[in-house]
Amino acid sequence: MEMIKTKNICKKFGDLKVLADVSFTVKQGEVISIIGPSGSGKSTLLRSLIGLEAINAGELYIEGISVKESKTEVYQKMGMVFQGFNLFPHKTVIDNLIEAPIIVKREKKEIAKIKAKKLLKKVGLYDKKDIYPAFLSGGQKQRVAIARALAMEPDIMLFDEPTSSLDPELVGEVLTVIRDLAAENITMLIVTHEMGFARDVSDRVFFMDQGAIISNSIPEKIFVKPESKRIRSFLTKIL
Ligand code: ADP
Ligand code: MG
């Protein structure tokens, strides 16, 4: 089943073309890493998929449904985790998790809490459930952010540089959580600069440059013997 299908999507900010005829499909359970230089349109692509940016042209289908036809239904199939953790600072960890299921999905509070506790166990933070985000490390905050996105039971998870604002010693714990998810059947798109992780965890890697996906292939093809000069030069700079 095709979870995501895009056909020639374009996005402009004023005169600046940020996405230029981007077309791809993602199947159920696939893990895609998106790499490429800063400013190449990686964040804009994820933001467009989940409706945070309106595309100017092209077509976008989520689980076979065109976003033009049914916006809210489609976007609820996706969860997103950002570089900054964006937790609600005035809510405890567990209240961060139950907010959206109660308000958006009209879940009963007790049910939402049971599910939230399960998710907090999954990301290793059950013992932090009643504290406020300010008392968590960056890695813990990001694990809460992941659990919060999962609380909406999305079919697709989007990660935009989930470890980029973390101290180096905290990166591993967040990557471990994402790696565990990848082993489940959830479809994921991950923008990352962690090349070793991308290579291990992905079924396919998209390399973006100037608003286009210039390579869409298995990790070996990008990391072991990249054909494109552009990719080779990017990898030598980043590794
Ligand atoms: P990446 O995530 O690959 O670093 P982005 O998608 O954030 O790239 O940005 C792609 C280009 O679009 C950049 O040139 C950036 O400056 C520009 N851009 C992103 N968001 C906006 C915005 N809201 N308004 C104007 N330009 C933007
Ligand atoms: Mg970005």
TrEMBL record:
How is it placed in the membrane, per its record? Answer: Peripheral membrane protein
UniProt KW keywords? Amino-acid transport, ATP-binding, Cell membrane, Membrane, Nucleotide-binding, Transport
Record's GO cellular component terms = plasma membrane
Q: Which domain of life is it from?
A: Bacteria
Subcellular location(s) per record: Cell membrane
Q: Which GO terms describe its molecular function?
A: ABC-type amino acid transporter activity; ATP binding; ATP hydrolysis activity
Family the entry assigns: Belongs to the ABC transporter superfamily.
Spell out the protein name for this chain.
Amino acid ABC transporter ATP-binding protein, PAAT family
Natural source organism: Halanaerobium praevalens (strain ATCC 33744 / DSM 2228 / GSL)
User: Top-down, what is the taxonomic lineage of the species of origin?
Assistant: Bacteria, Bacillati, Bacillota, Clostridia, Halanaerobiales
